[in-house]
Amino acid sequence: MGPRVATLVALALLGACKGKARDGATASAARADAAMVASAPRDAAAAPLDASAPTAALTVEPARTYALPAPAPGFARIAAYDVDIQEGACKPMVTVLRAYEGLYAAMLAEQWKVEVTVGTLRLRCGGDPKDQACLAALCATLRPVPGGSALEPYPTEAPTLELATAGGFAGFDQGGVVIYADGTVQYFGPACARWRGRRGQLTAPAMAALMATVDQSGFATLAESPKEEMVRLLDCSDDVYASVSVRGTTRTVGCTRVKAIDDVAAAIRAAVFPNPCE
């Protein structure tokens, strides 16, 4: 196990221990704090926004309902993604392919894994290297559920932007948003049952304006190394933190601020929030 993986594992264990001491009130506080991380201040006096209402720059679709067939005999359903996989002697770990892996990073570094597109959904499937033959056979059986979210017409290329917030290394996922080059917006979070929780669309001028702000932020020229980022995050390992990804490059902030990361997060929030899945 390399030094970076060991550090991540240590952080995860530290956060998990702290997380056990939290009660429901603390979790609620973490959710409230997450709205302030790497974001522009919100007007507390303003009326709540209707996340389904169109604006000049953004339209958010109403929540969808699904009537899905049961899995075929011998198959198991991964409900968050609306995909089925054949059952077998081993148990593959299936996760959505994201720029930011969070606590999965240390685990994924040690796994055998394969990237697959199921319907229009980009997934990673894998597990213990000693089970590679079994895992490869089962991962090859992944298939989208007819009528499910894995078949919705999302872009299949990697997203341009991603913003995710979570309550420290102990967990408390607060959700976030994925934005594609064509302005397609995908919201995700604990208030939505599926990874593809709600869908939105930015107009071309709004997407261009957002990317202009991102490109002027200095995010692309940040010189901080992954090791330096880990040292910075260690200052408050169980703090509510935010992760920002731009064209596949991911940066994370906790209680120690980084202006360029904060500026990108604030620009994303200003363009597509509130998140109906938070």
Q: Helices and strands in order, then pairings?
A:
Elements: H1 3-20, H2 24-34, E1 58-60, E2 75-78, E3 83-86, E4 93-96, H3 104-110, E5 112-118, E6 121-127, H4 132-139, E7 143-144, E8 161-166, E9 173-179, E10 184-188, E11 198-202, H5 204-215, H6 226-234, E12 241-246, E13 249-253, H7 259-272
Antiparallel strand pairs: 1-11, 2-3, 3-7, 4-6, 5-6, 8-9, 8-12, 9-10, 10-11, 12-13
Helix pairs in contact: 1-3, 1-6, 5-7
What does this structure look like?
28% of the residues lie in helices and 23% in strands. It is built from 7 helices and 13 strands. The protein has helices at 3-20, 24-34, 104-110, 132-139, 204-215, 226-234, 259-272; strands at residues 58-60, 75-78, 83-86, 93-96, 112-118, 121-127, 143-144, 161-166, 173-179, 184-188, 198-202, 241-246, 249-253. The strands form 3 sheets. Strands 1-11-10-9-8-12-13 form a 7-stranded antiparallel beta sheet. A hairpin with a 4-residue loop joins strand 9 and strand 10.
| Tally of separate helices | 7
Quaternary structure type: single chain
Query: What is the distance, rounded to the nearest whole angstrom, between the alpha carbons of the first and last residues?
Result: 35 Å
Mean pLDDT: 79
Query: How is the largest sheet built, in terms of strand order?
Result: 1-11-10-9-8-12-13
Q: Helicity level, as a percent range?
A: 25-40%
Biggest sheet, open or closed, and with what strands and sense?
7 strands, antiparallel
Compressed to H and E, one letter per element, the order equals HHEEEEHEEHEEEEEHHEEH
Number of domains: 2
